Amino acid sequence: MPRLELVASLEGHQDRVWQAIWHPSKTILATCSGDKTVRLWAPASHSDMSNWQCINTLEGGHKRTIRSVAWSPSGHEMATASFDATTGIWEHDQRDNDWECVATLEGHENEIKSVAWSSSGQLLATCSRDKSVWIWEVETDNDFECLSVLQEHSQDVKMVAWHPHQEILASASYDDTIKIWREDDDDWYCSDTLQGHTSTVWALDFDASGDHIVSASDDQTLRIWKMYKPNNAQGIPTPSNDPTYRTVCTLSGYHGRCIYSVSWSKVNNHIASASGDNTIRVFTQTAGGDEPSWEAVATIKDAHGVHDINNVTWFPTQQHGDWLATAGDDGVARIWRLVEDE
Amino acid sequence: MAFSSALVLTDLNDYIAPSQACIKPVEIEKSEDQGPTEIKVDQGGDYYEISKDGGESKLEKASITLNDCLACSGCVTSAESVLITMQSQEELYEILKTNRLAIEQNDPSQHRTIVISISPQSRASLAAKYNMEPLQVHKRLVYFFKHHLGAHHVFDTSFSRDLSLVESAREFVERFRRYMANGGDKMEAALQRQDIEKQQEAEDGKRRPRARRRAAAAKNEDGEESSTQQDMPMLASSCPGWVCYAEKTHGHIIPHISAAKSPQQMMGTLVKDYLATKTNTSPSAIYHVSVMPCYDKKLEASRPDFFLEQFNTREVDCVLTTGEIEKMFGEQNLQFDQLPEADIDDMFNKTVTNSEMQMAFGTTGSSSGGYLEYILRTAARELFNIHDVPADPSSESSNNARVIVKTGKNADVREYFLQGDDGRILLRFATAFGFRNIQNIVRKVKSGKCSYHYVEVMACPGGCVNGGGQLLNPNSEEVMSAKDWVSRVESVYQTVPGVSPEENEVLKEIYNEWIGDPSSERAHTLLRTQYHAVTQNLENPLATKW
Questions:
Q1: Most buried in the list A147, A338, B317, B489, measured by CB within 10 Å?
Q2: B545 chain-A contacts, CB cut-off 8 A
Q3: How is domain B110-161+262-363+501-520 classified at the CATH fold level?
Q4: Which cellular components does GO assign to this protein (chain A) (predicted)?
C-alpha cells in the first residue's frame, strides 16, 4: 500500500497559509497567506530536498488576506486574489530576481476567493463572495480587459478552475452547485449546472484530459463528474447542444468533516483531498468507464496538527510527480511524497 | 450584486441576510458609561430608551427611502417591493379618483393637472409586441390616458430629449475648450503622434517592442504624466442606473459625468416650470407621470436634486414602466390593439401634421438617445469647423471617411474617430453599454489611460430598448430568441425618422422665451444637475462582514 511521507516543512508566514501552488515547470512553490504576502520557496540544493528556503516575498500589494495565488502558464506572472476585493498581477523581473505588482484589477464588491489563469495564458478568471465570476482578457502593456461579469450563482463563489486545454471555466459555490461557463459569440454564458452536492462546494479540479471533474464539498463527499458530449452513446440528454456533466462516482465516508480542497494529478491520475478533519487522503482509480471506482490508498492524519488543511496540490510535471503540497491554518506549508511500496 | 439592468420586480424572499453593508449611513451616537438601558414601545408605536436613572429619551426612527434602496445592492429590509409600489399605477389611480371627486364637489383645490410623458423606447416596445407602428401606439396611448382615464396632456420625451442633447453638446464643447487650454493640446499632440507611429509600424510590419518599456519611453519623451484632469472624458448622464452605480462605487468618476439633465428630467422642468408658469398653475397642482423602459428611472425621479422645495413637489412625480402600463390596460379591461386612436395635439411632442397625415419624429442614433452622434456632429462643427459629419456614422450608407467607426470586443462597445482633413484624429468617442464594458471604461479613467473625449455610458446591454421595465419577449425561445427580440424592438424604434434639435422649431421658440441666454445661471439651474458620491459609514452596526 502506498503511503505519504513528509519531505519538508516550510515555515515563515505570520498567519494561516491559504494555498500552496506549484510553479508550472520549475521546482518552486508559491504560498499565500493571511499575513498579506506571497512567499516563493525552493529547495536549498538539488541534492537535499528536505531543506527549503524562501527565495522571494511578494508584499505590499494587498490590504487584506491573500486568499488565492495562481501562476501564469509561462511562470513569469502571478495573480493574487485578496479579501480586499482586488486581484494583483505580478511580473517577474529576471535581472533583479524581483517581483513587481504591475496591475491591480478592481471591480468585485467584496472578498475575492479564487483566481485562475487559462491554459493559454490569455484569460484570467476571478470569483467572489459577491456571487459573481469575472473573466478578464490579458492585453498588452499589462492591461486587463473585463470580458464578462457572470452573476448566475445565488451565493458566494468559492473557486474557479479552467479546463486544462480549452477555454472552458468551472466554478464552485456556496449554493451547492458547480457551473460550467463557455464563450458564445461575444459573451460568456452558463452552459451547465452540476447539482448533486448537498452543501457548499469548496473546490474542484479537472483531470489531465479535461473530460472529468472532481469536486470537494462541505457535505464530506468527493464527486467525480464525467463529461458527455451531444449525441453521446449513453443517451444522456444535452440541452442547448452543449456537453453536460454527470456524477459517475461519489466518494463518501472518507472524511469526517468538510473537505476544503481537492487536486487531480495530471501525472499519475491520483486524487488528493484535504479536510477540516485534519487528514489528507490519496485515492487511485481502480476501474474506469461510465461507472468508475476509486480506492483510498494513503492517508495522513493530523497533517498540520490540530489545524485545518486549506489546500492540497499535486506537482504538475513528471519531475516530481509524486509530490503533494499542503497549506494549513498553522501558518506552515508542507511538502509530501507518495511512496509506492513494493 | 445587483446592477441596474438586472433590476426587475420579482417576488422577494422576506428574509435577506445582511451580507452586504447597507449604504444608508446610520449614525448612532453612543454615550459612554450609560450602563444597561431598556427599550419601551408606547401605544403610538414610538420607541423610547429608558436609562438607568429612569429618564426616557425618544429614539429616532430609522428610515429607508426608495432612493436608498434601489441604489443599494444589499437591502436590510425586504420592503423594497413595498417601496417600489409607492411609485405605481395605484398612485395614479388615486390621483385620478381625487380629481373626479374634486370636479363633483366643485373643489378646485383638490384638482391636479395630470401630465403623462411617454418615452420613445416604451413606445417601441409596445409597437413591437402589438405589431404596430410607433405613431399608432402613441395615438392609442393618447386615447387611453386622455380620453379613457382623464389625464390632461400626453407628451413625448423625444421632445425634451432635444433639450438634453443640446445642453450636453454645449457642455462638451465647454469642457473640451477648457481641456485644451489646460494642457490638453499637448496631450492631444502626443496621442496623435502615437497614432502616426502605430500606423507607420503597422505598414512597415515592424514588431512592436515590449509594450511596457515602450509606454515608459513615451512618458519620458513628452514628460507627460498620465492625465489627471477632470474635463475629459465626458460621460453620459441620462442613464440613472449608471449614475447611481458611479455614485455608490466610483465616486472619483463623478466629475466626468455630464451635468445635463436626462430627457425625463428635462421634461420635468418643462412641465413644472415652463408649463406651470404659462398656464398659471402651481407646480404642486400638476401631477407628472413618465412612462419609461426601466425601474431606475423611478430612482432618478425621486432624487432630492429634482425636488422643488419651494413648491413641495417633484419634477417627475411618478414613473411607470412599459410593463406597468401594459398591466393597466388589463386592469381597465381594455385590449390595447383594439383601442381607438386619438390625435396628438399637445405641445411637447415631436410630430408634424401635414394635411391629414401625422408623422412622428425622433432622434438619429442609438436607442439610448443618440447622444454620441449628436455631440460628435455639434463638436465637429463648433470646435473644428467640420460640417460633413454624417448623422449616423455607424450606418453602412454614410460616408466613413470623416468618421471611422470600430466595433470593439462586443457589439456594445464601439469607437468613433473624427478625422481631420490632414488625417489627424481630432475627436475620440465611444459607446459602452452594459456592466462589463462600463468596468473597462471606469478602470481606464481611474488609471488615467482613457483617451476618449466622450463616452456614451448606458447600463443596459443593447441600449434603452432592452431596459428592465420593457415588455418581455412574447415569443417562445425557439420562435424568437431574447437577443432577436431586442433587435426587433430596436429596429421598430429606428423606424421613426430622426430630426435634429436644431430643426425643432417649437422647442427653439420655447427655449428663447423661457431660458434666453444658454450660459446664464438660470439656464444652468434649470437644465443641469449635480451628483453626490455615497460615502460608507463604516461604523454601521447593521453591516455584518463574514
A1: B489
A2: 110
A3: Rossmann fold (3.40.50)
A4: cytosolic [4Fe-4S] assembly targeting complex
